[in-house]
Design brief:
Length: 188
């Protein structure tokens, strides 16, 4: 794994010694990575601005699947680029899945893992990201979306701690087509 800024990336993508390039980042930079790799025909995998979805069909074991989905969304306090961010749950199991996910969210302990061994989820990594999450939560509140779990932290809460939050059926640009075919959605 090699990390770096602009100049390093172009040197890697055009270098004949790399057979495979995997990039996680923005779409504009992904275009540059792909263009640079074209000269050497290096294989490229791009993870660009992901908004990873999980589709849940009605034949699943709700309890088992809910636990898997919960940790796919909230492992490492949800700070993984491939964390599940959207759930499309079939209408036949939606209520049961939403209830199970909310129960899981209520059962985890959020706090400082350096001071408490029983902590399941830690803080958001930095102030900028914390503010981004607060902005999203405020937007959900302002639009009247229902929180199945979590939500905005209490004012005056010390640290960058946010409870695992599930938003019930938020409207998205593609929500009407998704709901008509598979039922409501839930966002983590």
């Amino acid at each position: 794994m090699i990390t770096g800024t602009g100049g390093l990336g172009s040197r890697i993508t055009s270098h004949p010694g790399f057979d495979k390039i995997s990039f996680t980042g923005s779409t504009p930079t992904g275009r540059s990575v792909m263009a640079g790799a074209a000269a050497t025909m290096a294989r490229v995998t791009l993870e660009l601005g992901g908004n990873d979805a999980a589709i849940v069909l009605p034949d699943v074991n709700v309890k088992e699947t809910a636990a898997q989905l919960f940790w796919a969304a909230f492992a490492n306090t949800g700070q993984i680029c491939l964390a599940t961010k959207r759930l499309y749950v079939h209408a036949d199991i939606y209520d049961d899945m939403a209830r199970e996910l909310a129960d899981l969210a209520a059962a985890v302990t959020v706090g400082d893992p350096t001071h408490d061994d029983d902590v399941d989820l830690g803080p958001v990594s930095n102030l900028r990201q914390y503010q981004t999450v607060l902005d999203l939560l405020n937007d959900c509140r302002d639009h009247g979306y229902r929180f199945l779990s979590g939500g905005l932290p209490d004012p005056g809460t010390a640290g960058y701690f946010i409870q695992p939050t599930l938003v019930d059926n938020p409207q998205t640009p593609h929500a009407s087509s998704a709901r008509s075919s598979s039922g409501p959605s839930c966002r983590c």
